[in-house]
Write a structure and sequence with these properties.
It is built from 6 helices and no strands. It is mainly α and 139 residues long.
């Protein structure tokens, strides 16, 4: 190829040798750069329109349609504890607030949050009932 290029120009033999050397170095350099990936980064670009892993993960995570058995049982237990504390006139307002939040989480089918809030409600009701067994004033 470079012979055709050289024949186009009327160069001396010394000029042809320099030009041959420059062309061969240029060709070797471009081949090296292409092989090493420095010149072109063809394989690391994202094609437009492909679905990413985040979209796939969001699609796979479906919204739940029911509470777990544990969350349902804890919610029922919390309701019983609320009624017991109310009948004993020992119900704390913080227990009512936690129970309301637990019901809201159950309506949204969030089993983890329902379980956590129901356990907190049960603990608060037990503390409120235990408080009634203590003396009113401890001097």
């Amino acid at each position: 190829m470079y012979l055709v290029f050289l024949s186009f120009f009327d160069l001396s033999t010394q000029g042809q040798a320099v030009l041959k050397k420059m062309l061969s170095q240029g060709i070797c350099t471009s081949i090296f750069l292409l092989n090493s990936g420095c010149a072109f980064n063809l394989f690391q670009t994202k094609p437009i329109g492909l679905v990413t892993q985040d979209v796939v993960n969001d699609t796979i995570r479906a919204t739940p349609t029911a509470l777990t058995e544990e969350a349902t049982q804890l919610l029922l237990t919390a309701e019983q504890k609320i009624n017991n504390a109310r009948n004993s006139l020992a119900l704390w307002t913080s227990a009512i607030e936690k129970f309301t939040l637990a019901r809201q989480a159950a309506a949204a089918f969030d089993s983890d949050k329902t379980t956590q809030l129901a356990r907190e409600t049960i603990a608060l009701c037990e503390f409120s009932l235990a408080q009634t067994k203590l003396p009113l004033v401890n001097w």
